[in-house]
Amino acid sequence: MLLFTYLVVILDSVLTVADGSTTCTNPRIRRSWNVLSKEEKLQYTAAVKCLFETRAQGTAYFPAAQTRFDDFASLHINQTSPRDAKNITGNGGFTGPGIHLNSVFLPWHRYFMWIYENTLRDECGYKAAHPYWDWSVDTSEYGSSLPKSQLFDSVYGFGGGGKAKAPRENLGSTPGHKVSVLNCVDDGPFAGLNITFGPGPNLDQPTPRCLNRGFNVSLFDASAQWQKNAVPLLQETDYFTFTHKMSYPLTGAPFGVHGAGHFGVGGEMINLWSSANDPMFFMHHAQVDHMWSMWQGMSEANAKAFNGPISPNGTGLSTLDSPLYMTPFLAPDLPVKAVMDTENKDGSGILCYKYEDNPAEKIPAYEGPENARI
Ligand SMILES: [Cu+2]
């Protein structure tokens, strides 16, 4: 059964070898948005727009879904609040322990990104690997700030933070972190597009509304710097502590780097459930995955490390066989071990990509006692 599910997800750069396992011969190279050419940037946003213009495939599970993009947003919402939804038939109605603040946070989002990247390529003509958002260069550390980011360019980016509408609370946002700004994105390739699900856990009713953001520049600046925020994180030696500190504040910072991207962009992005309604979600999570990949690359132990509670409440023991739940119309459920190595070097996994560190932006050397690489 496992073999079958692996074969289903084999894609162009993954070859089947004689024993039925797969090997990665030509990994896709995920690059920083800032080093893409204008043409490459337009190709990416056009492919994402294509997902908004293509019909949903998951209506048997989430009848309110309108677009192919909604298929991803709905899956993220449902896996954030696992429930025996009446329309969920996969997994016998059981949808798992959640995907945030627990051990599977990183592998689940890694697999989710892989499916999204494949869908852009297979259904929307995108040719390259998924880009990532190197947030650190959009901070004062590099003499910049969030609104100056290349990501928010109105032509060669994702549009900006929108113009202020009547402030209101983003209902259903992450508990304890409500913000009062919610602006419609009014420039760039996604201006005028509707999102469907949310806010928050809502999956039952379509709630068409604008894609919305609400920049929080100072919070972002204090939480997304390389030396101050990313480097200490990469020094962690325990997998779950590393995972946890991505979302929780480090000493002296409002948020971990994962929180920085979500709360910096604001609007839909601060929503634990419906953040995947903003295409920026995938740019941010590519960099979150990049951080995990960097951390894995620092030692053999890190490469194989996986531990922590299966439940966000701190209970349950997770293993490399713990399942990553998707829904059947998007991709098969797979065990954590299938996505531990982005280059699938031992042939037991499914992935085939790696990250190019941003050559245009010097990563400051870390003068610590260990881990000279960073
Ligand atoms: Cu998430």
How would you describe this protein?
The protein has a two-stranded antiparallel ribbon. Strands 3-10 form a two-stranded parallel ribbon. Mean pLDDT is 84; it is low at 1-20, 84-94, 166-180 and 362-374. It has 10 helices and 10 strands. It is mostly helical. It is globular, with a radius of gyration of 19 Å. It has one domain: Orthogonal Bundle (di-copper center containing domain from catechol oxidase). The relative contact order is 0.18. Strand 1 and strand 2 form a beta hairpin. It has helices at residues 2-8, 38-52, 68-80, 105-124, 217-223, 226-234, 239-247, 257-265, 280-296, 300-304, and strands at residues 14-16, 22-24, 28-30, 183-184, 194-195, 209-210, 212-213, 323-324, 334-335, 353-355. The longest helix is centred in the N-terminal third of the chain and has 20 residues, at 105-124. Residues 76, 99-100, 109 line the site of copper (II) ion. One of its GO terms (molecular function) is oxidoreductase activity. Keywords: Copper, Metal-binding, Signal. Residues 100-117, 278-289 form the Tyrosinase copper-binding domain. Residues 1-20 form the signal peptide. InterPro entries: Di-copper_centre_dom_sf (IPR008922), Tyrosinase/Hemocyanin (IPR050316), Tyrosinase_Cu-bd (IPR002227).
